[in-house]
Amino acid sequence: MSIKVSVGVIGGRELEKALQELGSEVAGKGGGLVKNALNAAGRDVEARMKANVPVDTGRLQRSIIRFRERNPRRLSEIVYVGPKAGKTRSDESGAWYAAIVEFQGGKGGRGAGFMRRSIHHDQDTATIRRNLATGIERVARKVGNKNAQAIGARIKKL
Fold first, then answer.
1. Could you state, in order of their start, the residue ranges of all structural domains in the chain?
2. For 98-115, how does the pLDDT look when each residue is reduced to its tens digit (9 = 90+)?
3. Packed helices 121-143 and 32-52: angle between N→C axes, nearest 10 degrees
4. Residues 6+ apart with CB under 8 A from 42
5. Which terminus in the chain has less CB density within 10 A, N or C?
6. Which residues, 6 or more positions from 62, have their beta carbon under 8 angstroms from its beta carbon?
């Protein structure tokens, strides 16, 4: 069970050119700037999800995790946030009933919606943009690319 939210970062030709000029510095080891920006937004979503979840035993709250899909052949980064199911019903590290709580709820039949309420599109997109711009500025200073540094500063102001 998952709710998929996709965020596309479209910054025009000048941003694309600046990122290409920075080359491997942007990608970095294990994902680089994009990974860092997505993890920052993922941390916020994870914290809101843990705060919104109805706590009965605490098992569902403890099962909420954030992890990155590792696929070196892909050109995109994916960060998942949500409850892990566990291997069996008796597995205490997971919560197999997360979908029931999210969509159906308890005896009243009204779902809790703790996952849906945890995603704030504008706020999360702004976090990604801010972290990405800061990273671009930092790498541009390190490499000495004034063009990319100016683009990073412009993105931050948006």
1. 12-157
2. 888 888 876 555 677 888
3. 150
4. 66, 79, 81
5. C
6. 93, 95
CB 114 within 8 A of CB 53: yes
Asked whether residue 153 carries a pLDDT value surpassing 60, the answer given is yes
Q: pTM of the entire structure?
A: 0.73
Helices (H), the chain: 12-22, 24-27, 32-52, 59-63, 98-99, 121-143, 146-157
From the number of C-beta atoms within 10 Å of its C-beta (0-12, 13-18, 19+), residue 157 rates as exposed
Nearest to 60 by CA among 74, 49, 73, 72: 49
Q: Which 3 state secondary structure label does DSSP give 9?
A: coil
